[in-house]
Amino acid sequence: QVQLVESGGGLVQPGGSLRVSCSASGFTFSSAYMGWVRQAPGKGLEWISHIHPGGGTTDYADDVKGRFTISRDNAKNTLFLQMNSLKPEDTALYFCIRTDGYWGQGTQVTVSS
Questions:
Q1: Residue 84's pLDDT is what?
Q2: Which of 52, 63, 64, 88 lies 20 to 30 angstroms, CA to CA, from 16?
Q3: Which residues contact 107 (CB under 8 A, 6 or more apart)?
Q4: DSSP for 60-72?
């Protein structure tokens, strides 16, 4: 069955960087459209980014554009989100998604001094 397992979340100071990962199994990762969404405390889900199967096409939400980078390693069935210049408002539970409706369990990112 489809499994998506996020890792790499944690506590980081404002202005810092963090990379979260998503290990995928149970499907042909190299053929899948993948992405990241997040949910801040008390707020709804927010789409962050997605990436096409080959990795050559990506897109970002305006409030993370220029700070976050999505990438993938199809040989290792892994999706990444590099987050730079983090702000307190980036604090959220970050979910890896296969864009046709599969989700991981999420990894918590907290940006605080």
A1: 98
A2: 52
A3: 6, 7, 8, 9, 20, 93, 94
A4: E-TTTTTTEEEEE
CA separation (Å) from 22 to 28, 98, 107?
14, 11, 9
**Mean pLDDT of all residues in 98-111:** 96
Number of H helices, E strands in the chain: 0, 11
CB atoms closer than 10 angstroms to residue 57: 10
Nearest to 48 by CA among 23, 16, 12, 80: 80
The helix, strand and coil proportions of the chain, stated in percent and rounded to the nearest 5, come to 5, 50, 45
Both structure tokens of 82: 């590099």
Contact 91, 112 (CB under 8 A): yes
3-state SS class at 55? coil
